[in-house]
Amino acid sequence: MLKPDYKNSIVAFVNVLLSKFKSEVIHEEFNDMKDLLAPELEGADKIIVLIIDSLGYNKFLTLNEKLKFEKYYKLSSVFPTTTVSAITSYMTGLTPQEHGLLGYIQFLRELGTILNMIDFSYPGMSSTSFDTLIKRKIKRLPNVFQKIKKEGYYAGILTGSNIANSGLSFLIQKDANVLTYYTLGDMFATISKLFQKEFKGLVYVYYGMLDGLGHKKGPDSYSYETEAEYILRELKRIIELQKGKNTRVFITADHGMVQIPRNKNVFLGDELRKFLRIPPTGEMRMMYLYTKVGKKQQLVDYFNDNFKNRFELISSKEALAEGYFGIGKLHPETLNRIGDLVLVTKENYAFTYLYTGGEDKLEGMHGALTEEELYVPLIVL
What we know:
GO terms for molecular function: hydrolase activity. The chain is α/β, with parallel strands linked by helices. Helix content is 36%, strand content 21%. The chain has two domains: 6-258 and 370-380, Alkaline Phosphatase, subunit A; 262-363, Gyrase A, domain 2. It contains 15 helices and 17 strands.
């Protein structure tokens, strides 16, 4: 099982950007990344970071045989390899164990329930139920935007209008200058305007629809690859045409994705209740398991007897001690959010827990620690 390399990760990249703007840096120890990017950042006072959700490094290499990007690096994502954790690391410069957003489905002790952390809903149900309550109970995280603006620079994000006010956005984008787009063409047009706008600072651009397409049709589908190639080709054209001499652009991603055959996705439900205190949380390829007293070994035996060679199980505290969730001071709720055991799937296997019975049968998934999920490109333009 691979492990994130936080010294050469998206977290290290963000901390280097903070140091570029003379902002408070969370992690001073990422010197290799600082040395690597120093030539790229020299003379640049406008930095634009384009994040394409679910564009893995290996997938990028295949597409780049046609696209011919000349300068790029291989970055590690975080664990788990999922949007909630990785995008939060981009927005805060913190590792997952520091920011405490550790999966798509998460147990919040503060509310005594599990929630979808994208839209603050119970898995499979309306997003209106918990939104107001959570915004009162959960502390918003200090972020990159605040740190950069404190030093007198511009700091913003361009994101889809449909997610600009989501629960996750609320938690991680406080005080950012938020710009929105409605369609892909609108996003390209707004990026062009950013190049023309006079400012010194940092702007993130987040594109999430490739991730949605990958979930529905899989990252190996013709549709996914066509979409990814078109986005990268058009971004390359716009950037090369309009980028100013004091502007540096990076194209990157939060994590990659794995194609999951239907016969390798196991649906789980009531049979786990005798072992667990609450339903599994996390992801379809990475679950946090909260075991009942005296039931831990029985749960391990159940998975080994029924699904041998499809997964690895590790003590949650051991995963924490070994650095899977990062470095730095623990968020006050991290230990409460990772359960007793962490189940990480191998190869292209998955487990879908039936919270409501109406869960989608997804073709593409992420969250685990394969090379396809863990590594992302950092393209320099």
